[in-house]
Amino acid sequence: MKMSEPQPGFQPETQEELVRFIAENVSSGRRHLHPIGGGTALPTCEAESIPVQLNKLNRVIDFPARDMTITVEAGIRIGELNRILAAENQRLPIDVPQAEQATLGGIIATNWSGSRRFGCGTMRDYVIGISAIDASGQRFSAGGRVVKNVAGYDLCKLLIGSRGTLAIISQVTLKLRPQAETSALVTLTFDSLSQVDAVLNRLLTSATRPMVLDILSTTRPPQLIVGFEGTSREMNWQIETLVEECRPFEPRTTESLVGTAAETLWKRLRDFSIDSKSSVTVKASLPPSRTCKILNLAIESGIAVQAHAGNGIVIGHLSERVSTAEQANSAIKPLSELVRSCDGHLSVLCAPNGWNALNAVADSWAGSLAWTQRLKRQLDPHNLLNPGVMAFGPA
To answer: Is the bond leading into 221 cis (omega within 30 degrees of zero)?
Structure first.
């Protein structure tokens, strides 16, 4: 997720204005439309597409704090949303880089989630209602404003991760969580990934309840990072228990960071996907048991990696020496083949404009591409919304 340059285009100030624009577009001209929130996640649109800037759709529609839900327009910045929720001691527990730029709609469209996904889940766990406009200019809604309302819930899930290819999300209702009293990160450094893999297997039966199970390796040796949230008393007990459980695996170093002392490392985990000089960033999604197998190949290939090991998500930055599309494809192909052999998917999160870096990973989508194309034809028969973008990337 890296910042793209702002692009001129249509910028509605109300949802009604957006509906009118899309309806007029399909009745005359049928130009391709490229919805943009903060410009941090989706690729730059093709030259003939009209960018639809959504960041002025940023109003709070309803915030019944006692119900722990909020309804907002999709263009609201994540940073602003976080401040509104924090005033009521509540939160949306999704780790978002560039929070002052990224929008809620963009995060939902890409189904972005970070390190806390192991303990807190993804956007699919928090979106309970959605309003969107399809390519014909028809506005529709799914779900509702209360947690127990499940009408149309599958349609909510369908739009999460659809990358702006099925409809333009305009309004969202979220269920929320209370703020945690404090948090902690424990880092354990090991000589090999086989040790890390053994520890991960042990943690499947741990007495602790981690929020985070990440592996971070920009250089050897790899680090296992385990995160907790709760009261100070809970933090102390969980840290002590974790360290004792990991002792037989002989970590080279162990460090515990609690509260504000952990903020720098939390930021590093949150911003890993954007904190690189690399031209190409990839993301793999595979069974969690295969994570270390993929990491071995990535590290041997000079790819800096972060893995949400409990969920089977791996984010990798190719070497800074990769300077052409051909070099990128050559570097990605072995990783793509291994991911596919593990029943996973690989996608390119970031690459320079004009690079055909998806060539190396297209085959990894073969199993799901046919049904997504059928769905696209049904909901957007004229292929007006984000043509060429592959929907439903790795979760």
So the answer is: yes
Q: Do domains 15-178 and 182-270 have the same CATH topology?
A: no
Domain 272-377 CATH assignment equals 2.60.40: no
The DSSP bridge partners found for residue 217 are 305
Residue 145's contacts (CB-CB under 8 Å, 6 or more residues apart) are 62, 69, 71, 128, 129, 173
In three-state secondary structure terms, 303 is coil
Give me the phi and psi of 365, to 5 degrees please: -100, 0
**Distance between CA 336 and CA 161 in Å, rounded?**
21
Mean pLDDT of all residues in 147-161: 69
> What six digits make up the tokens of 40?
């941090």
Please, what CATH class does the domain formed by 15-178 belong to?
A: alpha beta
Considering the four listed CATH numbers 3.30.230.10, 3.40.630.30, 3.90.940.10, 3.30.70.260, the one that applies to the domain covering 182-270 is 3.30.70.260
- How many Å separate Cα 72 from the centre of its chain? 20
| pLDDT, tens digit, 9 for 90 and up, residues 155-204 | 888 899 888 999 999 999 999 999 999 999 999 999 999 999 999 999 98
Give residue 71's identity as a one-letter amino acid code. Answer: T
Domain ranges (residues) in the chain: 15-178, 182-270, 272-377
Tens of pLDDT along 111-126? 999 999 999 999 999 9
| CA separation for the pair 279, 294 (Å, rounded) | 21
Q: Where are the alpha helices (DSSP H) in 247-309?
A: 263-271, 291-300
